[in-house]
Amino acid sequence: MNARRARAGCGPLRLDPRLTAAARAHARDMVARGYFDHADPEGRHADARIADAGYPASAWAENLHRGPRDAATVVEDWMDGSVHEENMLGCTYRDTGVAAVPGPDGTVWVQTLAGPAGR
Predict the structure, then answer these.
(1) Against a cut of 0.85, is the pTM above it?
(2) Best exposed site among 12, 14, 73, 118 by fewest CB in 10 Å?
(3) Helices (H) and strands (E) in the chain, counts
(4) Which helix (H) or strand (E) holds 97?
(5) Distance CA 49, CA 25 (A)
(6) Strand, helix or coil at 102?
(7) CA 73 to each of CA 46, 109, 119: distance values in angstroms, whole numbers, following the listed order
(8) Tens-digit pLDDT string for the chain (119 aa)
(9) Where are the domains of the chain?
């Protein structure tokens, strides 16, 4: 993914533990409560989860996937010319967190991307 970002003129994404925590919390919640959506049943989106995790974001995005167990397949699926690819190649985003949680309908993947405030 970072090689593609470099070709697009962007710096590498850095793994951030706060964004990983936000991604993990959302993936676990989706599996536990049986939904698959960017918004939880209360209507909260990734920006709230990112803030709750303590990351001061100026910009954010979230990619979701359900099914495959291996990360390589998920990344290839996201790199399909859709908004997922735009998110992953967006130079605004500097940091990321990823989580995978097994569920009854396949593994739920969440990638949270953000750009820090003040940059």
Answers:
(1) yes
(2) 118
(3) 5, 4
(4) strand 95-101
(5) 8
(6) coil
(7) 23, 11, 32
(8) 899 899 999 999 999 999 999 999 999 999 999 999 999 999 999 999 999 999 999 999 999 999 978 999 999 999 888 899 999 999 999 999 999 999 999 999 999 999 999 86
(9) 2-116
